User: Fold these one by one.
Assistant:
Number 1:
Amino acid sequence: NAGVMQNPRHLVRRRGQEARLRCSPMKGHSHVYWYRQLPEEGLKFMVYLQKENIIDESGMPKERFSAEFPKEGPSILRIQQVVRGDSAAYFCASSPLQQMNTEAFFGQGTRLTVV
Amino acid sequence: DAKTTQPPSMDCAEGRAANLPCNHSTISGNEYVYWYRQIHSQGPQYIIHGLKNNETNEMASLIITEDRKSSTLILPHATLRDTAVYYCIPHTGTASKLTFGTGTRLQVTL
């Protein structure tokens, strides 16, 4: 059973370009979470999605950032018109459908560098 | 979210037990104490969790005080590969976000 897969592992974008980060959850997991870690800082929650639904986007910046988890395929975190301050590691986690006593499984992250 | 307090850093000699404390005095009755760690540049890794009883698995032991206001993660025989930032996180265990604090940076040395 493969773990949470994120790609690409490293992404370089020029200012103003779009960044697309992909996350495939563990098999059988229907909940996906995105976190951001700025250099030398802690992990900050961004968004929680189930298939085709955004459940909690309280940590998402109001502009330029969007996320989706379609019925088929991976979850996508999209950053439009990237700026230098978007440079960070973006981690995806997944958890199973069961409602209690679960733990989250994290991917290895995508390191976004904006030049 | 329950607030946690952890020492910012700790050192431990390889082969010795590492005892990482966490204060979570505002933990709710339905919240477990979860521990995760992040080895440099990698994704966080689940270690262990418990509600009120002590727990042990292949990675660590978790001791929770009777009043549930604090807990200690024990790595019985620390190795260099255990060098990481360790996070204590009260969480209901349901499908919802994790709130990471600043954690404890454990440095295991020869």
Number 2:
Amino acid sequence: AQSVTQLDSHVSVSEGTPVLLRCNYSSSYSPSLFWYVQHPNKGLQLLLKYTSAATLVKGINGFEAEFKKSETSFHLTKPSAHMSDAAEYFCVVSGGVSGGSNYKLTFGKGTLLTVNP
Amino acid sequence: GAVVSQHPSRVICKSGTSVKIECRSLDFQATTMFWYRQFPKQSLMLMATSNEGSKATYEQGVEKDKFLINHASLTLSTLTVTSAHPEDSSFYICSPGEGANYGYTFGSGTRLTVV
């Protein structure tokens, strides 16, 4: 079985300050982990993906995430928030089951990021 | 990355009617198509997984006779919501895959409102 927990439903930061969106996962197998961003009434955009290569994954728009197996975490960070970063962010796990469901994506409940001027 | 075209982006229909949502993979051979549903202020939930040329696999609690999925080619998959009810109002999103190449692209979503 696989699951993902986003620890904060809402994070509010000031423009120019660091962003930290927390995610913990549970998986029976070596998982793939993703972070997506969703702007209102829009589809999802992939920020980054971890697939058992380097544990520090760099994504688009200055975001990065670090896979920590000992902590079962995959937190998303950005050094300096921009107003355009305001959106919903989803942490996703996959590959945590065997057989035909190996590519099933299991989404966290999402974290709404607000960026204040 | 792969380009996916999903339409319509928004549809309003009357209760009891059917609505078809199309998802086209424009530059990618989608052997698999994942269909997700997102209720307001909630996360995405996988509804079903379709493989080209075979029957779709539905997640627990999703009625296969209500949500008809057709994946007749490597570039087109359709989701038909039959006998729509207001509780089917949701945001439906597709995502293509080919083997281990998945999760990179999503359609822009279809906002379905049943009145």
